[in-house]
Amino acid sequence: MIDFTLTEDQLSLQEVARKFAEKEVKPKAAEIDRMADPRQAFDAEATRKACALGFHAMLVPEKWGGLGLTMNDFIIVIEELAAADIGFAMNLAVSCSVSKMIADNGTEAQAERWLRPYCDMRGDTHHLVAFGGTEPSGGTEIFCGDPDPRLGTRTTARADGGDYIINGAKCFITNTSRAELYGVLARTDKTKNNLVANSVFFFTPDTPGFSIGKIEDKMGHRGMSNGELIFDNMRLAKDDMIGAAGEGLPILMRCYHVNGVMTGALSIGLARAAYEMALNYARERVIWGQPIIGYQAISHLLVDMKMQIEAARLLTQRIAWATQYGIHDKGIHPAMGKVFASEMARKVTTDALQILGGSGYMKGFPAEKYVRDSMVTTIYDGANQVLRNFMAMDMFRTA
Ligand SMILES: Cc1cc2nc3c(=O)[nH]c(=O)nc-3n(C[C@H](O)[C@H](O)[C@H](O)COP(=O)(O)OP(=O)(O)OC[C@H]3O[C@@H](n4cnc5c(N)ncnc54)[C@H](O)[C@@H]3O)c2cc1C
After folding, report:
1. Cα 173 to averaged position of ligand 1 atoms, centre (Å)
2. Which domains occur in the chain, in start order?
3. Ligand 1 in contact with 380 (CB < 6 A)?
4. Per-residue pLDDT tens over the stretch 369-392
5. Cβ(169) – ligand 1 distance below 6 Å
6. How much distance in Å is there from the Cα of 221 to the middle of ligand 1?
C-alpha cells in the first residue's frame, strides 16, 4: 500500500522546524526585507541558531557530522523555513545541496577536510556554502551542449604542474560573502565539447587570487546575498577538485536534481504562507455585511490556491523520493516539480494579493513581499524555459 502520511519522526522534525521558523525567522523577515543595504540584510543570529539545529547539514551523512536526512525529510524543513522567509530558507537549502555535492562526489579525505568542520553544530557561528556556476555570459550557457568548444563555460582552470590556475568570473551566486567554502565550475579543457570539459573545485575565501565583486541589490529574497566571484590566477591543487577532470557538468546536473526538489519545497513554503494570509484575511474582512470568504469568487480562488499547493507538494515529494533512491521514475521528470511549484508560487502569491485588495499592495501586509519573492523561483536553479527544453529532450527524443 502506498503511504502518503508523514512518519512520527517526520512529524517531530516538522514541528521543530515550524516552531523555529515561527519564533526565530518570521518576526524579523519584514525588517530584513526592507534593509536598504543588501550587504547588511542578513539574519546572522537566526542562521547561527539554524546551524546549531543542523539545518545547514541536513543532507550530509552522519559519519561526517551531518544529520543524514533523506530528501523527503529535507523538504519538510525547507518548506517550514520558506513559509517564514524564503531568502533565509534558501541560504540554508543551497548550503545543504552543495554540501551534499561534496559528500556524493568527494573522496573520504575531502569530506573530512571540508565537511567535518562545516557540519559543526556547536552554535558558535553560522556555516554556509556557495557554488558558482552562472557566468556573466549566461547561466544557461554553462550547460551548452554544442560541439563548438568556444561555447559554454568561460571560467578556465589551466593545468600547471600538479595544480590548476583559475581565471574568470561568476555572477548572482547565493551566499556570496557569507560562505565559508565555495565551489566553482571551471573549464579544464578548451578543446573539447563543453559537456565533457568542465570540472568542479572547492576552496576557502582566503585563497589568493579570489575576490568578491558586486553584491546585488535584488527585488526579493532580500535576506539572501547574491554576488560576483572573481578569479585572478587563483591557484588550486588537484586535490581541490571533486570527481575527475571533465566530470563537472554531470556532477552539477545531479546537484540540479537536488536543487529542483529544493526549489519545489521553497516555492511551496512561500505559497503556503501567502495562502494562509489570504485565508485569514478573507475570513475577517467584512464587506457588504459578510466576510468576503462568503463570496464565491473569493472562496473559489482560495480553493484553487490550496489545490495547486497540494498538487505541487505531492509532485515534489515523489521527485524527492525518486532522487533519494536513484529511481528512474518513468513519466515524472525530475525538473517537473521545480517548474510546476515555482509557477504555482507566482500564481498563488498574486492571487493572495488580489484577495487582500488595496491592503495587499501596501507594505503593512507581507502580500507584496510574497509576490516579489516568488518572481525569481522560475529563474534560479535552472530557468523554467531551459528546464522545459531538457524535459522535452529527455521525454520526446527518438534517436
Ligand atoms: C536570486 C538568484 C540566486 C542565484 N543563485 C545562484 C547560485 O547560487 N549559483 C549559480 O551558479 N547561479 C545562481 N543564480 C543564477 C541563475 O541560475 C541564473 O540566473 C539562471 O540560470 C539563468 O541564467 P541567466 O540569468 O544568465 O539568464 P540567461 O541564460 O541569459 O537567459 C535569459 C533568458 O533566456 C532564456 N533562455 C536561455 N537559453 C534558452 C534556450 N536555449 N531556450 C529557451 N530559452 C532560453 C532563459 O530561460 C531566460 O529567460 C542565481 C540567480 C538568482 C536571480
Report:
1. 11
2. 8-126 (1.10.540.10), 130-246 (2.40.110.10), 250-396 (1.20.140.10)
3. yes
4. 999 999 999 999 999 999 999 999
5. no
6. 16
User: Which one of 85, 134, 154, 267 would you pick to mutate in the ligand 1 pocket, going by the greatest count of ligand atoms within 8 A of its CB?
Assistant: 134
pLDDT one-digit tens code per residue, 311-338 = 999 999 999 999 999 988 888 999 999 9
pLDDT digits (tens, 9 = 90+) for 175-229: 999 999 999 999 999 999 999 999 999 999 999 999 999 999 999 999 999 999 9
Q: What is the distance, to the nearest Å, from the Cα of residue 46 to the centroid of all Cα atoms in its chain?
A: 18
- Indicate the pTM of the whole model: 0.97
